[in-house]
């Protein structure tokens, strides 16, 4: 049986899907009886999903256009001078 | 865990509950398809009809075919799961390993050995299979029902191996080493058959008016393809195949019909499947693609009149079908760089897998084409170089290479295209580091100006996008240092000292996304991200929002992979902490 601290130490690679099989089995064994780690695991996974689908820091088309315009004006001006 | 984003599968969804019931768990291969439940339904339906329904061959026999063929394909995932199944069925380990290595030495009866010989020939050298091979099986006492099931089990293995190569699920059990003896040389050119000299097996009459799959095929194709008429001994399998067509090929919410038909066409051509190439040329003709164009796509799609994105899509599927052992996450990243989403990727993988299933099946039953093929694939086409072999060198081509070369040649307008294409990811990277809209936009301008100045030095050793984001990252860090002289992204000691333990331990709701609108979720995530120190925020942005691979994100930030992984995990935990107050089961009540 592994402890909660040991669980937390391996959770990162477990979430990334690159924990070794025997480690994975230990973690899953721990998860099956530890309510707290179950919550941490579940909510961290959900966090990743929410972040991934959040479109955070997306730039509106108009802003892309305006900035691209400024950059190109600057480049063409520098080239002429 | 697999290459694609993981989504919870609804355990009450019938295909899922039947997998659970049969295996005692839901294999990772099916979990890996959870983004599109209809696809899970298709794959589970074929798997159940072919493998799980007891008909002429016992399960042990079909699993042995699966094990031998998966070992021949070098597919660790499928070897592991069939090994496990056979072990549960009571087959001793020693015999199991021997089936994978060389079934002739596995102590099987001559009839069982002949059945595996047949399956392996179909799996590896299908166009050489002939009515002679069927006759030999009959002499060993196998009836047509059993032979059809052996063909179906071989086709299913090709289907499952293609899926697992494309989706990268972790093995469900301790992985078994693959010890298959080397592949025998390709048979003699003179014995080449081409898979169209059947039908080899007995058939029974099924009414096109009342057998629902035939009704469906009539509606969709205007006739009932011979490949389905050749399997009438197993109406339930035809039903599962029609279900897969309906769930995989009919929807157009991600890949279009033309894109799917093009995949089926090029992969069938790579498999030398004259029957299927003719069928898909016909389908494309009905969609307005001329025969000449279809033929060009089949023979060499790189020269066809297709968009760069569609060429990349076909490169992707060909590599998966022809070089599955070299296929990996980088191929998915490359496809996504053309704007395809994970759902597109999943569809491309499943269409390729379904194609391999149908190609193998067709060669096994020897169905004859309904229309005269305009191209017949012969033994010469089987020798390299084949269309698919070009991929090995082309697979890592940078989608921006053409534009970059034009800029390097003095075309300033081409740079504008690069700016438009990459400004969002540059901006996000900079928001990750700076956390301030005005500063990020300023730094973005600096980034592109620097990139333009130095583009002459860019030699294509990395992808242009990685190079550009490295400039963005350095530009952002430079500003950050000026702003807060003490802030460093590279302080390993500080990392070890920081508090690690999660504090919020209230359970989250089952479906947190239902609790808030998309706009609200974005606001909450951005708010949470703004609370993180820059070095954590930027890692989350690159990995979880920008979806860069670990290697690419590490390269952009100038970190080692272990440091990047440690930071990513810490960042996810920190954000979880910040979001918990909004997403715990009781949160909605408090907020509303």
Give descriptors for this structure.
heterodimer, A: 81 residues, mainly alpha, B: 592 residues, AhpD-like, Rna Polymerase Sigma Factor, Chain: A, 0% strand, globular
Describe this structure as you would to a colleague.
The complex is a heterodimer of chains A (81) and B (592). Chain A has 81 residues and is an all-alpha fold. Chain A has one domain (4-80). Chain A is 79% helix and 0% strand. Chain A contains four helices and no strands. Chain A is elongated, with a radius of gyration of 23 Å. Chain A starts with a helix and ends with a helix. In chain B, 63% of the residues lie in helices and 0% in strands. Chain B has 29 helices and no strands. Chain B has helices at 14-23, 28-31, 37-52, 59-73, 76-88, 93-102, 110-125, 131-139, 144-167, 212-221, 226-229, 235-249, 257-270, 274-286, 291-300, 308-322, 329-336, 342-365, 391-394, 401-408, 412-434, 437-454, 464-483, 492-497, 518-531, 534-545, 550-557, 561-583, 587-591. In chain B, helix 4 (59-73) packs across helix 7 (110-125) and helix 16 crosses helix 18. The longest helix of chain B has 24 residues, at 144-167. Chain B starts with 13 loop residues before the first helix and ends with a helix. Mean pLDDT of chain B is 88; it is low at 383-395 and 491-497. The chains are: A mainly alpha (81), B mainly alpha (592). At the A-B interface, helix 1, helix 2, helix 3 and helix 4 of A face helix 21, helix 22, helix 25, helix 26 and helix 28 of B.
């Amino acid at each position: 049986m592994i402890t909660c601290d040991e669980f937390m130490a391996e959770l990162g690679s477990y979430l990334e899907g690159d924990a070794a099989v025997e480690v994975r089995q230990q973690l899953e064994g721990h998860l099956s009886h530890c309510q707290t780690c179950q919550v941490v695991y579940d909510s961290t996974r959900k966090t990743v999903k929410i972040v991934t689908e959040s479109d955070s820091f997306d730039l509106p088309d108009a802003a892309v256009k305006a900035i691209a315009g400024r950059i190109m004006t600057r480049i063409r001006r520098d080239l002429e001078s | 865990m697999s290459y694609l984003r993981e989504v919870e599968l609804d355990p009450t969804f019938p295909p899922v509950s039947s997998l659970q019931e049969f295996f005692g768990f839901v294999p990772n291969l099916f979990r890996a398809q959870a983004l599109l439940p209809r696809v899970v339904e298709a794959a589970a339906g074929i798997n159940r009809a072919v493998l799980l329904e007891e008909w002429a061959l016992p399960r042990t026999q079909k699993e042995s075919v699966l094990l031998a063929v998966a070992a021949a394909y070098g597919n660790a995932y499928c070897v592991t799961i069939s090994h496990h199944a056979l072990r549960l069925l009571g087959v001793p380990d020693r015999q199991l390993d021997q089936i994978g290595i060389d079934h002739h030495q596995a102590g099987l009866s001559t009839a069982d050995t002949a059945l595996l010989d047949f399956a392996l020939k179909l799996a590896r050298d299908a166009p050489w299979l002939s009515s002679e091979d069927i006759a030999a099986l009959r002499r060993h006492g196998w009836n047509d029902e059993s032979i059809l099931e052996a063909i179906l089990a071989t086709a299913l293995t090709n289907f499952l191996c293609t899926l697992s190569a494309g989706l990268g699920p972790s093995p469900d059990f301790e992985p078994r080493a693959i010890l298959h003896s080397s592949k025998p040389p390709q048979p003699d050119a003179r014995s080449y058959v081409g898979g169209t000299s059947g039908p080899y097996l007995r058939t029974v009459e099924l009414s096109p008016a009342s057998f629902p799959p035939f009704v469906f095929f009539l509606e969709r194709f205007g006739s009932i393809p011979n490949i389905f008429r050749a399997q009438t001994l197993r109406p339930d399998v035809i039903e599962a195949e029609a279900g897969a067509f309906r769930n995989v090929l009919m929807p157009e919410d991600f890949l279009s019909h033309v894109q799917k038909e093009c995949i089926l066409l090029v992969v069938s051509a790579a498999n030398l499947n004259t029957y299927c190439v003719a069928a898909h040329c016909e389908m494309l003709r009905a969609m307005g693609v001329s025969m000449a164009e279809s033929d060009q796509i089949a023979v060499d799609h790189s020269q066809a009149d297709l968009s760069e994105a569609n060429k990349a899509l076909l490169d992707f599927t060909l590599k998966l079908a022809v070089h599955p052992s070299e296929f990996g996450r980088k191929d998915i990243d490359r496809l996504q760089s053309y704007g395809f989403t994970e759902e597109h990727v999943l569809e491309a993988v499943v269409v390729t897998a379904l194609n391999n299933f149908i190609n193998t099946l067709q060669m096994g039953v020897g169905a004859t084409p309904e229309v005269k093929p305009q191209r017949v694939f012969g033994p010469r086409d089987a020798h390299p170089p084949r269309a698919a072999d070009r991929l090995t060198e082309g697979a890592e081509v940078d989608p921006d290479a053409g534009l970059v070369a034009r800029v390097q040649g003095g075309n300033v307008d081409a740079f504008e295209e690069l700016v438009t294409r990459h400004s969002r990811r540059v901006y996000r990277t900079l928001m990750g580091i700076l956390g301030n809209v005005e500063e990020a936009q300023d730094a973005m301008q600096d980034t592109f100006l620097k990139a333009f100045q130095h583009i002459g030095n860019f030699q294509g050793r990395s992808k242009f996008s990685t190079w550009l984001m490295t400039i963005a990252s350095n530009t952002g860090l430079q500003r950050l240092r000026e702003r807060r002289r003490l802030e460093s992204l590279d302080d390993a000691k500080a990392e070890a000292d920081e508090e690690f333990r999660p504090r919020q331990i209230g359970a989250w709701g089952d479906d947190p996304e239902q609790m808030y609108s998309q706009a609200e979720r974005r606001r909450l995530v951005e708010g949470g991200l703004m609370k993180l120190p820059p070095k954590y925020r930027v890692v989350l942005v690159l990995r979880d929002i920008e979806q860069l691979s670990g290697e690419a994100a590490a390269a952009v930030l100038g970190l080692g992979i272990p440091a990047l992984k440690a930071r990513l995990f810490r960042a996810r935990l920190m954000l979880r902490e910040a979001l918990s107050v909004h997403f715990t089961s009781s949160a909605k009540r408090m907020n509303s």
